[in-house]
Design brief:
homodimer, alpha/beta, 4-stranded parallel sheet, elongated, DNA-binding
Chain lengths: 356, 356
DNA sequence: CTTACGCATGTGATCGATCACATTGACGAT
DNA sequence: ATCGTCAATGTGATCGATCACATGCGTAAG
């Protein structure tokens, strides 16, 4: 209703410059609205903030005046006098990856629907300086709250040490410190993936972990290990990657050398690298080697073979992060991860390959 | 230097409340700084905006006072009085895709380095209403300029019809209307890809196009057709997809039925779908069918076979978009696209398969 | 019939910066 | 010796909203 309908602009020239002080390009303010509506500026403000005690007729007069003047409240003035920026800061350390990007988009939409806007600050590196820069930028804008997407432990440490503490939320299940957040149960997701492999009969299962400083990587690794331990299996076949397909390729080769018959990869990209490693070693998937990914990127179904993976509802998680940050009541805990079974997993080979 | 060094906060209690009016949690303002530095508030403002005529000693006094008080300028107040928001709006219609997400990240960094911040408004749908909503949101924040990422023609139309015109930039080479922008020469990129296939000897080449309302799709299609026409070949083997691997799979099947020996896909995801279509039809790549993608997503090198594709420097393009929007002088025209030759292309089969 | 209270509205100060316009002093030109 | 100019700084108004506090008036309680 208050949208900028561009096909408008009819009678504004005739009416607006009653006092012909040259052309005045300045936008309408509360005072202009008040004058047209025949009320005080404060009443206009009350309409804006829908104050309870306002006669319906008055409110309507004001709304009409607003429409007539094509009034739009000035966000800066509002922020200044109310000292509320209605701004949510996103602190991110990634650029262009599927998961974070999806979450950011969902956060933006959710925030906007509540009258908030969103600014992104990317910390280019993991070093303290670049994280501090990003935080500093968000502080300068006096963001009312932060959502930390794809957090590394370093980032959380920096957040804990803020002089002016700002409420913040992470999507990962709350780590060490007693923060808020956690609507992505990645430990559970990892157990789902691992137990799927074990149920198929695999005994020697490897994991390609993400960078150890990432919470997500930590949790997926934990889930993997928990599941193996709960079945008295060896949880030590772990190689570390950096989320990229290239690193997945390398890690998979190492794991294959250790004689694993199945690999749970920390994300789908690394799983793709593992797929290509298998091919390059002449192994078939899932005949010789089973592979499970994590994320369910849209392309996963078109990998060769189609990738079995774990799906998380990232968009929903993003929305809940906003709700949580804004202190809304009904924030249910976690969106359950889901195993998407495709063609990259199967029973282990009858006669295991020699270990070296 | 002005970053939020959290390990601070020493003598502020002793000094700050000379007039003991209870605890005053309010942040320092220009006046506070002025008092401490022994100058007027205007001089402080001059330091902030580095005005030329300021004695070095004075500037230093002010800077010292700022540090002492841990002063940070209030963005809202600044925006209000100067009527400059220092805000760049990103209008996007995508969520989580590689290209747009990469560009957005680069824009954020470039903007921040110039003292601007960035807000994203996603138009969820293509309908006029949701585009208008997004625009309206950015207008409410009085963004000084817009960068349109991944634009469809509808979006451009909406932009043209704005009541309050805001400068905007698209990354694509300026389309029909006389807009600004264009640092991604996608026509050239598409010609590169197509001519690569033709040089290998293919005569019957198909194209999987993105949604027709996307500028990127239009330009890639144009490049494809231009190149074919320039060699007197038939440019009519075109199927339309929606950027997804699934649609690429469908489109590829249709093209294969038409007897093409090579496919240029509008992006890498659809190329992946084409790859899987080839496999599902028992064709080998590149033996029976050559495939070229577009974008060079990080995973492309790990597809089976590794995908030949066109790389664009998206991050650089994002940076230049900011420079262009901010009216900086040295904005060179376009970042050249580059063909990345991998394993998915080769000579056409000796004896072409029957057409049906 | 008054007092009190709450609804509906108005008045002026305020948020923290910049802007427009003084004011001061030094210095070179006339 | 006088004046204009410019560098360096100060004073008060201003941006457009909200906040804190009045005010007028109807109605229920004393």
């Amino acid at each position: 209703m208050t949208s900028a309908t561009p096909t408008h602009g009819d009678n504004q020239t005739m009416d607006a410059d009653r006092d012909n002080e040259e052309a005045r390009p300045r936008a309408a303010s509360v005072f202009d609205v008040a004058r047209v509506a025949g009320v005080s500026h404060q009443t206009v403000s009350r309409v804006l903030n829908d104050h309870p005690s306002l006669r319906a007729a008055t409110r309507q007069k004001v709304l009409d005046a607003m429409r007539e003047l094509n009034y739009r409240p000035n966000a800066a003035a509002r922020a200044l006098s109310s000292s509320r920026s209605r701004l949510i800061g996103i602190l991110s350390t990634s650029s262009g990856e599927y998961g974070p990007a999806t979450i950011v988009a969902a956060i933006g939409a959710a925030a906007r629907s509540r009258g908030y806007s969103v600014t992104i600050a990317n910390a280019d590196g993991l070093d303290r300086r670049s994280v501090d820069d990003a935080l500093s930028h968000l502080a300068d804008l006096s963001a009312e709250g932060l959502i930390v997407v794809a957090p590394q432990t370093q980032v959380l440490v920096a957040l804990e040490g803020l002089t002016i503490p700002v409420p913040y939320v992470t999507l990962q299940t709350a780590a060490a410190s007693g923060l808020h957040g956690g609507m992505l149960d990645q430990i559970r997701g990892a157990r789902l993936a691992t137990s799927h492999l074990l149920d198929l009969g695999h005994q020697r299962v490897g994991h390609i972990a993400g960078p150890p400083e990432w919470l997500d990587a930590q949790q997926r690794l934990t889930g993997f290990q928990e599941e193996l331990r709960s079945r008295q299996l060896d949880p030590r076949f772990v190689e570390i990657g950096d989320w990229s397909a290239a690193s997945g390729h390398r890690a998979a080769r190492a794991l294959i050398e250790h004689g694993v018959t199945a690999i749970f990869s920390g994300n789908d990209q690394m799983a793709l690298g593992a797929l290509s490693a298998a091919v390059s070693l002449g192994l078939t998937v899932p005949g010789d080697l089973s592979i499970v990914g994590f994320d369910d990127v849209p392309e996963a179904a078109y990998y060769q073979p189609a990738l079995t993976t774990v799906r998380q509802d990232l968009a929903e998680a993003g929305r809940r992060a906003v709700a949580l940050l804004l202190g809304e009541a009904d924030v249910r805990p976690a969106v359950g991860p889901e195993l998407i079974e495709r063609a990259s997993t199967g029973a282990p080979p009858e006669r295991p390959r020699p270990e070296y």
